[in-house]
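Exercise 7.
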Amino acid sequence: AAPEYSAILDLYKVVVDHSTHSVIGETSWQEASDLFLQEKCALTFNFHGALKPILTSLKTKEDAEKFRLKMMPGTKVVLSVDGKSLEECDDHRCPFADENQINRAPFYGEGGVAIAFNPHMTPENLEAATSFAISLTGPEDSLPLLTKAGNLLDPYRYSHFKNLGDPESEESKVYGADGWYHQTLLNWQKDYMSAFEHPNGVKDLAIYGKVQYTGESALESVLIDLFEGKENAEESRARLEKAWSILTSRYGNHIQQKMYQKSLGLPTSSLEVPVVILGVVLVSVGTVAFLAFKNRQLSHSLSKEMKNSRTISKWTKLVEDNPASRLMNVLALVREGKQVDTKLVDALMISLMKKSGDFWSPDWNNNEFAKVKENNEDF
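Solution. The predicted structure, written as tokens, is:
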């Protein structure tokens, strides 16, 4: 609402008017960090990289415990799905709110490292560039770069927090070489990881017109005029509202909301949640039913195939069981110098004497053939 926003601008101006920049003049971030360590400032706010000089200057457990990070302020209300109103947080609307129903969205990530390769390079140069990129981003080389107090925006990765519980680990020693006190390091790891892995963390505000919303044509220029006393809070609010309305009308409020919600994996309409859930349930049930049907078909088909396979195997064994084949098996054993069962030789001799005609022909009249034929007429 307009009165509340004007009050916020007034409060923001008071804070800036009492900052080190207004009290002692233009101040670098390093000087601001020193003033904070001297306990001349109640609050310091910056990217994580700019906090490293403060962290590396804490040399005792008492100092380490005095400096703790806090998450960004949150709210007890959230924008409704249709974007037309604010709704009180509850377990459904704000599932990741804290015990006081305050909803925070930490890990505002706008930095990072990107590596690109020139496709027109020679193979030798491309290989060298690739090796350099791998070395630069690997934990062995990237960790010493990150631990240095003056290195501001080198992004943290999981490998940079590995084995820090052990003060004698190689990783802890790298931090220690750059002035990190071990207890400070453990506190930093805990605080940083809590924001890094927070389930409510969001992406960068990737919408049309972001530069115009936050840049010289809107927020930035308005705040500068406010701080310089050229406009009061109400005039600044009116300018911001006008600039916001013009930009939003140009890019489309509804489109922007839907695009941002989609980029976060959120539903884009109030009906989308139950519809999506219902759709997932129906698809899941349908899939299970289809798989059950196919499984039954497959089981029946497999059973039939196994039965046929056993029948074929039985027929094959019976067809191959003829006097000539048995004689060949006995001769093969003799050739290999193995002892041949005399009973087997006697039975084979009797079979050969009784057999007339083709010795390779099986005995079609034995009981096994009759049994197989009776049970497998179709086959």
